[in-house]
């Protein structure tokens, strides 16, 4: 399917032949990133936690993309781990420790705002990307904290806290792997 789309784009002159591999890679990454998101949304619908799932993804994804952290070596492991972690945080959010999770989530979000993003790619404009990532992290983190302080909706509080906690944990795991010299 991806190959068909890319071939059509090349044939119709929308992309150059020499750019084919880059666009193919981009399409593959897009599809592989949509699979776990789709699975999480299905789990959320089945467990009747769609609001939690959507809010969790809305806060988890932009911070995760920009802060970096632990990455699995295989895409299948990454998908499985993300889905299992989501099921874990969904279950954790139903326990009667909401206040603890809220304050721990706030702490994690505050730490995230202070952290330097982990960059694994060989991107041309590293300084600009770093600055952009820091701005996105701060903006999303501030929004998360506002939700945690101002809104009195337990589902929003849980999803926001869990997104902050999970991002912080994955970031710390990524830093540990970098210090060990592991290629993620």
Automatic annotation (TrEMBL):
It comes from Faecalibacillus intestinalis. InterPro entries: AgrB. The chain crosses the membrane at residues 25-44, 50-67, 79-97, 103-123. It holds the Pfam family AgrB. One of its GO terms (molecular function) is peptidase activity. The keyword Transferase does not apply. GO terms for biological process: proteolysis; quorum sensing. One of its GO terms (cellular component) is membrane. Keywords: Cell membrane, Hydrolase, Membrane, Protease, Quorum sensing, Transmembrane, Transmembrane helix. Coiled coil: none annotated. The keyword Mitochondrion does not apply. This is Accessory regulator AgrB.
């Amino acid at each position: 399917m991806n190959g068909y789309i890319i071939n059509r784009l090349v044939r119709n002159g929308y992309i150059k032949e020499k750019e084919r591999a880059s666009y193919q890679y981009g399409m593959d990454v897009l599809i592989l990133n949509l699979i776990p998101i789709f699975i999480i949304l299905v789990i959320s619908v089945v467990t009747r936690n769609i609001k939690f799932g959507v809010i969790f993804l809305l806060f988890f994804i932009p911070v995760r993309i920009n802060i970096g952290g632990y990455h699995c070596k295989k895409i299948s492991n990454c998908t499985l781990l993300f889905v299992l972690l989501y099921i874990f945080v969904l279950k954790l959010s139903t326990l009667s420790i909401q206040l603890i999770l809220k304050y721990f989530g706030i702490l994690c979000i505050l730490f995230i705002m202070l952290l330097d993003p982990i960059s694994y790619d060989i991107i041309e404009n590293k300084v600009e990307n770093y600055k952009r990532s820091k701005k996105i992290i701060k903006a999303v983190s501030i929004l998360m904290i506002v939700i945690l302080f101002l809104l009195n909706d337990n589902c929003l509080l849980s999803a926001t806290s869990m997104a902050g906690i999970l991002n912080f944990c994955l970031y710390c795991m990524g830093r540990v792997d970098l210090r060990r010299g592991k290629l993620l």
